[in-house]
Inverse folding.
């Protein structure tokens, strides 16, 4: 690739693009500053390498018009990174001419006001490492379907399709991903009208780090082999009709930072012993059937900042080891069958909310920050930047 400094033809194409777009000049932070008297490689949102325009970031720039196949955008053939997210392309379809940008590595069209069928030509972008088409229910994958979209994208590491209507069963979407995307690390398929069960071929996605699949109708258990994803950091399956027993080994993955299984009313399971090197920061299991007691080893999770176990089936005493959770911001253990005394939370200096209501707890909270008898409400707590949610019963 040999280019001079800000070639005249690329500068002209960028200016044509600017002139073809309608945007709010009062809100724009990029297009509004493009000036033909200045080197285009110094324009806001433009990235160059050896004089070639390789990056274009027009995200959140108040664009409000259609984008069609005649746009000069598709003549910027050196583009490797393109971000048009958070604009309003006037409910137009995604142009089929994106396949002309064959050097694209990163493509982000999320929440950009596109609608309709995702064009098959996206599948021709064989160098893509990240594809983001997230939206709010206005895009669909029908023809091409998911399998056709990803069949040539073997380099893809990040796939964001949340909100796209995919409408596939587990034996369809599972193999489509596992056989075409061996390098996948991020999978975002929330609100995609997917159903289960999970296909066994997903075991091949060993590199998965982030899985977001909330608000689907999976109606199946989480496979035990998810615990073998040793790079897993985020697991979000809220409101996805999960059932059966959740594999407790998943909680022991050393890299795991966030788990949200909330509002899966038929999901059962219990906690294992947590590892001493655990990375968990967010644990949200509200409105599930997870049960038994909290293990003393929960105190090993020194990075925990949010614990939400509202309306589960937990019982027994709250472990004294929770006094070690100094990073806590939010603690909700309400609606369970916890009994006994309440551990001191005085070391949790940043704690903002706590709800222990609808349990069988007794005694006092021993703390240097507050001292009151349980079953009472201390209104002065709000003066200490602490919202008290202990309700009388």
């Amino acid at each position: 690739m040999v280019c001079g400094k800000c070639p005249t033809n690329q500068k002209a194409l960028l200016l044509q693009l600017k002139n073809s777009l309608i945007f709010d000049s009062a809100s724009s932070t990029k297009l509004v500053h493009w000036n033909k008297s200045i080197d285009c490689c110094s324009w806001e949102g433009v990235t160059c390498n050896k004089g070639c325009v390789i990056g274009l970031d027009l995200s959140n720039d108040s664009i409000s018009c259609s984008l069609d196949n005649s746009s000069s955008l598709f003549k910027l053939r050196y583009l490797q990174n393109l971000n048009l997210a958070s604009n309003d392309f006037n409910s137009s379809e995604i142009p089929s001419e994106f396949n002309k940008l064959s050097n694209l590595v990163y493509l982000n069209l999320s929440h950009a006001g596109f609608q309709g069928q995702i064009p098959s030509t996206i599948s021709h972008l064989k160098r893509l490492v990240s594809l983001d088409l997230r939206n709010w229910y206005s895009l669909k994958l029908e023809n091409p379907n998911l399998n056709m979209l990803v069949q040539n994208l073997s380099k893809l590491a990040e796939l964001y399709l949340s909100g796209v209507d995919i409408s596939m069963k587990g034996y369809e979407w599972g193999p489509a991903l596992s056989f075409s995307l061996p390098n996948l690390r991020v999978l975002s398929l929330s609100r995609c009208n997917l159903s289960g069960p999970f296909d066994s071929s997903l075991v091949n996605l060993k590199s998965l780090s982030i899985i977001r699949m909330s608000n689907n109708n999976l109606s199946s258990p989480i496979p035990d082999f998810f615990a073998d994803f040793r790079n897993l950091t985020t697991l979000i399956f809220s409101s996805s009709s999960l059932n059966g027993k959740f594999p407790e080994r998943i909680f022991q993955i050393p890299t795991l930072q966030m788990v949200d299984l909330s509002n899966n009313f038929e999901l059962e399971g219990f906690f294992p012993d947590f590892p001493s090197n655990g990375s968990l920061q967010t644990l949200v299991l509200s409105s599930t059937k997870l049960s038994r007691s909290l293990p003393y080893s929960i105190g090993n999770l020194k990075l925990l900042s949010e614990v939400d176990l509202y309306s589960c089936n937990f019982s027994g005493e709250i472990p004294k080891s929770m006094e070690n959770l100094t990073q806590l911001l939010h603690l909700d253990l309400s609606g369970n069958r916890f009994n006994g005394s309440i551990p001191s939370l005085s070391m949790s200096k940043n704690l903002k909310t706590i709800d222990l209501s609808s349990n069988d707890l007794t005694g006092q909270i021993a703390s240097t920050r507050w001292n009151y008898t349980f079953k009472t409400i201390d209104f002065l707590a709000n003066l200490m930047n602490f919202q008290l949610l202990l309700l009388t019963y």
Q: What stands out?
A: The CA atoms of residues 214 and 237 lie 4 Å apart.
